[in-house]
Amino acid sequence: MFFGRKLQDLSRKQKKSFSLLILREIAHIFFFFVLFLNECLPKDWRTTKIGDVRVFWAMGQSAESYQDYRGSQDSSSRRAIDEIPPEELANAMLEVLMDFNSCQQDTLYRETVKLFGFSTVTAKARKYLDFGMEALKKSGRILK
Predict the structure, then answer these.
(1) CA distances (Å), 141 to each of 63, 68, 80, 82, 137, in order?
(2) pTM for this model (two decimals)
């Protein structure tokens, strides 16, 4: 509703370069919306990071104590690799390592992405799997 009203105001004011104005206005609103959300979130909410992006954990849940992962049953439930917290990737890696007893990193990464519904390890996936490996090492559940 708010966006619709803003767009109507813009269209009345400017017939020329309307799409550029729309994009600029949407970016402006989005920026302030993100700032507003950051202020509204509880300060004691547990977070971890995927690169520079924060992951919010459910109230009462900590990343350190989370020992599970949510795999993919089919393509409709599959998350993008950059949406999977490193702690979940670490838990899946640990399961692969326990199944295989030991394996090379390429094999570990390939078997881990399969648990999340992917068929190959892309460069992007490798980046996030590295975050997962770091989380696994930090947890102390494997030797560094």
Answers:
(1) 14, 14, 26, 23, 7
(2) 0.70
Question: In this predicted model, what pLDDT tens digit does every residue of 2-31 receive, in sequence order?
Answer: 656 665 665 565 555 556 656 677 777 777
- Dihedral Cα 4, 6, 11, 17, nearest 10 deg: -110
Residue indicated by tokens 């670490």: 90
Residue 88 CB-density burial (10 A; 0-12 exposed, 13-18 middle, 19+ buried) = buried
* HSE, side-chain direction, 13 A CA sphere, residue 12: 6
Q: Report helix, strand or coil for 60.
A: coil
Whether the CB-CB separation of 82 and 124 falls below 8 Å is answered with yes
pLDDT in tens, 93-126: 999 999 998 899 999 999 999 999 999 999 999 9
3-state secondary structure of 124: helix
